[in-house]
Structure formats: C-alpha cells, structure tokens
Write a sequence for this structure.
C-alpha cells in the first residue's frame, strides 16, 4: 500500500478530528444508555439492551475507520463509479428485500441485524460527485454543467423517496446544493429553492383563508406579492434605471387600488388580478432582457411564470402526493391543526423533556420523561431531548458547540486541500453533517417538520453510525494523502 512506502500513515491523520469523533460517539453512547435505561439494568455493555448493542456497533465503526485509513487512497478514486453503480442496484433491490417498517421499505434484515443501504449511499454519492466535478477540464459555468452532478444526486434520492418511501434520507441529498454553490453555482439556484419553500408554506397555510374584500385567498395573494417583490428586485438589479423601482412598485399599488375601487360595484377576483400583475412583470422582464441583452432577466421571467403554476399545484402535491402522516405533521407544524395526542405528540413530549431539564439538567439517568417512556424514538431520532432533560441547557449547548467545532474542522480540512476532488468531497461531508444536525435539532425543538433524520454519532443504530464513520474516515484518508504526496 502507498502508506507503507511513504511512511507511517498515523502521523498524517488529522487527530483533532478523530478526537472530536470519539467524543461525540462516547457521549452519544452514554445518552443512548440514559434514554433506554431501566432500573433493573446493571451494565452499560449488556447486549440485551440498546446501549450494549450500540457498543458493538461502535467497536465495529472503529474497526471500519482503521481499515478505511489503511486502504491506499487511490483505491477510492478507481472504484468510485463502480461503487456508485452497485449502490444504485442495491437501492433498487432494497424495496423487494426489505420489510415494511412504519411505511418505509428501506431496511434489509441480515440475520439478527438490519442495515439501511441509504445511509451508506451518501458517502458513495459524495465520492462520485467529487470525482466528476474534480476533473481537470470541468468548470461550473452554466446550468448545463450541473446536469450530471444533479443526476448523480437526484437518481438515488428519487429511488430512496419513491421506491423505499424514506423521505428523510432522500432530503439529505439537498445538502449537496451547498457544495455546488461553493464550487461556483449561481446563487439564483439557492434563491429558487428558498422561494419554492416559502411559496409552498404560504400556499398551504393560507390557501383556504378567504380575503375580506372581493374573492380570492390570502395564500394566493401572499404568494403573488412575494413573486412581485422578487421580480421587481431582480429587474432593477440586472437593469438599473433611474426611478424604475419606484415606477414598478407604484404601478403595482395603483393596480391594486383600482381593483379595490372597482370592487365597490363589482366583485373582483384578487387571485387573478395578482396573477395578472406577475405575468405583466414577467413580460416586461423578458422584453427588457431581450432588447438590452440582459439575459438573466429572461430567467426571472421564466421563474416567475413557473412559480405561478407551482403555487397552483401546491395543493395537489400536498393532498395527493404526500403521505397522510407527512401531511398531518406539516399541518401541526404550521398551526393548521392541533393534534397533541397524535402527530404532535413526539414534539410536545420532546419540548416538555427539554424544558424540564432547565439550566443544569436533572442529572444523568434521572430524566423522568425518558425513564417513563413518554418520548417515542427517544434513543434514535429524538435523542437530543434526552440530552436536554438530563444535562440541561449547559449540556445541550456543549453538545452543539462540539458539533460546531467538528463541522468547522471539516471545512478547514476542505480549505487546505490541493486536490479539487478531495476538496469537493470534504465540503460534501461537512454539508451532510450540517444538514443532519440542523434538521434533527430543529424537529426536536418543533421548528421543523418531523422527517426522521438521525443525529450524527448520537442516535442509536448501526447503519447511521457506520454511514457517518465511512463518510468521515474516507475524508481523513484522502486528507492524509495530501501530506504523503508532499513528503
């Protein structure tokens, strides 16, 4: 192996990162024991309980890490596309091999254990994206250069979401948008993503709320006003003309004023009036873009018109595409329904557990909410509520700070790479960890919908632990190769 010819591999490994990895894994193990602890248990390594089983997974992850560090770094590049193809075949086969677990077809039983291939797919997809975008002649200049990277993340994401019915694992692939943005993708793409989420929320939350004047809904009006604001901003940004913003905004206000005045005698549909204003702004942006060769304005026009249709389709997607349990979770989160004993039960109990911990917590193994099993999934997706109850605000803040240092260290590793492929892979790893942390903590606190995403190194489960270990230690091996090549 290259490591044996170049010297001792261990002198090139980033030990601070491994130290933080071990700290997170150890503290996560303690909290799994705390979450699943019963008063008749005697040992944390009792293999009849989850803490003991997690200990076995931890030992396996440490062995995996050592093996990944000892493999020649060139092997990862050579086998990337082969591994990607095999991964797709495994993901396609999983629904036919898996058992239905709470509506998900993503777990394959291998004797006494079950594995979730989607957890390992993240590492392989990251390697594939890094290899493609790291080619010497690859440059991210236009949207065409994003077709292949989007396909590399989109195909496995669709398989996981549609065939395996595992929405949470599929959404993780959205983390790659941060990588693309870092490598030169236009910020307009992120704008589109944020706008799509905002339009969906406004359309669903206020779509059935009628306007006090005329006909129409508050949801459509809010969506169209958002699109009007975006269109005016980008028109003035791409083609600045004196008084243009004032003229466009004034015209919009004037049209709405005329609509209110006419509504005194005839009923006015403010839905169609708002849509008409967006269409007129889109036509104006297209004409200005073509005449003055400000071609980004053409994208503004296309995006605005697309969003008009998108807002009309949101209700169909919400009622016909999303699963019933997904709809009720969104409705509870947006305050459309109260379901404290159903969809909102997990979040409510998690909030109670975290709040009861107060500043310093109730003490290790003294959490009443967790001991009495009030919080479902308290040692998997909702493990953070155990931290909040037993370790309090101080302990929760300490965990988040450790995660912050860990992710910042991954970014630092990415910045120091001379190999573009390794740099892209490092940013992908950092983005995936950041996505998991944000979504998991957000859903436990009730500010994001519950979509079933584990907290890295904390949540119980061998697949997630091994998947995160694979992500991290492949990066550490590629980073160590940087020093080997300089030697």
């Amino acid at each position: 192996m290259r490591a044996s010819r170049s010297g001792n591999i261990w002198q090139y490994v980033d030990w601070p990162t491994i130290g933080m990895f071990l700290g997170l894994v150890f503290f996560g193990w303690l909290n799994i024991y705390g979450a699943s602890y019963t008063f008749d248990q005697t040992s944390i390594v009792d293999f009849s309980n989850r803490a003991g089983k997690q200990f076995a997974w931890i030992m396996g992850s440490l062995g995996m890490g050592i093996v990944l560090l000892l493999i020649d770094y060139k092997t990862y590049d050579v086998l990337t596309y082969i591994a990607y193809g095999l991964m797709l075949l495994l993901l396609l086969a999983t629904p036919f091999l898996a058992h239905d677990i709470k509506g998900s077809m993503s777990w394959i039983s291998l004797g006494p254990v079950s594995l979730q291939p989607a957890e390992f797919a993240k590492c392989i997809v990251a390697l594939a994206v890094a290899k493609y975008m790291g080619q010497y002649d690859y440059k991210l200049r236009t949207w065409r250069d994003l077709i292949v990277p989007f396909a590399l993340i989109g195909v496995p994401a669709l398989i996981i979401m549609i065939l395996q019915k595992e929405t949470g694992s599929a959404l993780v692939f959205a983390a790659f948008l941060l990588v693309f943005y870092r490598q030169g993708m236009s910020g307009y793409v992120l704008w589109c993503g944020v706008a799509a989420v905002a339009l969906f929320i406004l359309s669903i939350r206020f779509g059935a709320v009628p306007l006090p004047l005329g006909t129409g809904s508050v949801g459509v009006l809010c969506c169209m006003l958002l699109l009007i604001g975006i269109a005016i901003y980008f028109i003035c940004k791409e083609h600045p003309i004196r008084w243009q913003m004032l003229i466009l905004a004034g015209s919009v206000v004037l049209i709405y004023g005329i609509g209110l005045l006419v509504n005194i005698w005839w009923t006015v549909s403010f839905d169609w009036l708002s849509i008409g204003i967006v269409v007129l702004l889109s036509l104006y942006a297209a004409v200005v873009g073509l005449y003055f060769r400000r071609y980004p304005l053409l994208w503004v026009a296309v995006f605005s018109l697309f969003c008009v249709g998108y807002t009309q389709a949101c209700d169909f997607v919400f009622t016909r595409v999303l699963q019933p349990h997904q709809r009720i979770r969104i409705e509870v989160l947006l305050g459309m329904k109260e379901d404290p004993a159903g969809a909102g039960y997990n979040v409510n109990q998690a909030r109670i557990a975290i709040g009861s911990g107060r500043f310093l917590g109730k003490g290790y193994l003294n959490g009443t909410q967790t001991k009495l099993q009030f919080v479902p999934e308290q040692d998997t997706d909702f493990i953070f509520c155990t931290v909040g109850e037993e370790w309090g605000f101080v302990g929760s803040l300490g965990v988040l700070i450790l995660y912050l240092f860990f992710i910042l260290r991954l970014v630092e590793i990415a910045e120091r790479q001379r190999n573009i492929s390794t740099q892209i892979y490092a940013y992908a790893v950092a983005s995936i960890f950041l996505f998991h942390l944000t979504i998991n903590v957000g859903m436990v606190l009730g500010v994001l919908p519950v979509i079933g995403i584990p907290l890295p190194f904390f949540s119980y489960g061998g697949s997630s632990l091994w998947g995160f270990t694979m992500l991290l230690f492949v990066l550490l091996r590629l980073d160590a190769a940087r020093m080997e090549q300089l030697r």
